Amino acid sequence: MPSALPLGDPAPSDGLLPATCVDGAVDRTFSVYVHIPFCAVRCGYCDFNTYTASELGSGSSQETYALAAARELEFGAQVMRDSGQPERPVSTVFFGGGTPTLLPASDLVSILGTVKEQWALEPGAEVTTEANPDTVTAESMRALAAGGFTRVSIGMQSAVPHVLKTLDRTHEPSRVGQAVAWAREAGLQVSVDLIYGTPGESIEDWRTSLETAISYNPDHISAYALIIETGTRLAAQIRRGEVPDIDDDDHADKYLMADEMLATAGFGWYEVSNWSRGEDTRCRHNMAYWQGGDWWGAGPGSHSHVGGLRWWNVKHPAAYQQRIDAGTSPAAGRETPDAQARQLERTMLLTRIREGMATAELDAGGRMAVAGLIADELIDPVQAFAGRIVPTLRGRLLADAIVRRLLGF
Fold first, then answer.
1. Parallel, antiparallel, or unpaired: how do β-strands 30-36 and 90-97 relate?
2. Beta bridge partners of 130
3. Can you give the CATH number for the domain in which 146 is found?
4. Is residue 296, in this structure, part of any structural domain at all?
5. What is the DSSP secondary structure assignment for residue 386, as one 8-state letter?
6. Residue range 252-294, pLDDT digits in tens
7. Taking Cα atoms as reference points, which of 155, 163, 241 lies closest to residue 199?
């Protein structure tokens, strides 16, 4: 089942933002995230806010969703203006889910059109959609590119049939290569997403997935360790002993293999789980998250952040549709994290990326911890002496330990 929303303060029905959210806004990037909450099948490992046709019930539908999302974006643009936010063009747009490409390409292009009308896109803006390989065609890729999309992130996960079966993925492995080729022909940048550590996946299975992904010659590869989320079908299968549990040592071995093979193939890491062929093929949308930009998240369960204020929408598409039809904010709650929480989050995010974190942002205790982190080969000594905290390969495997020591807990 989808994970629960966080607790927080009630969100006002008019959605207006506090005046403090304006402070420093002109110096922050502004992005848009659009959540498409539909999937053909619920994967056993997934706890995202997604719904199959049988789970939707009355009050919402895939057919009318594009209009609902567009209306929230119109509402959001008005809220930003009424709250005194400066005019800022959108630097990145990301359609995630769920499976965005379950909607017709024309619907995705229409939603993007609303972003352009309400906020405008900055020149060279990055516009990405996630896609399952079995929900795209050559025609849909061409339509996305013609409609302003610049990038597609394809959910490959594995090249090995029994691993895909354990993950409840429905596509044939060969379909990924075809989807990549269609995206290339349409002129889109291509990322492929992989998952390692699936129960029953051998080290050779993982090697096969990496070799296959590299053979498609994408611009970008993401590789995420499988996390078993409470309440998912896979968690129940592990609890009942039907499949083996995940293993931290296995995860580490597979991460090291990924980094070595991807580096040999010309990919450079820029975040713990992400590799690209160059700076111009990084996922700029994710970089905006990691570096503290502002964004409006549209759709059920979407999270937003502007000027330190965070809010999240109601989860179920029917409840979301009801708010949209009423012309009120779909936000379920919001919060402004205190200084300690902001420092924790910033440290966690910045110490995962290649640019790292400035030591000047640390308190005295954090700066004193730097020498020990160098000695334990967790951070790059050259970068540390230059005033930045950048993890080594060993440090990427122990990223949480770096954060704990820098923050003294």
1. parallel
2. 153
3. 3.80.30.20
4. no
5. T
6. 999 999 999 999 999 999 999 999 999 999 999 999 999 999 9
7. 163
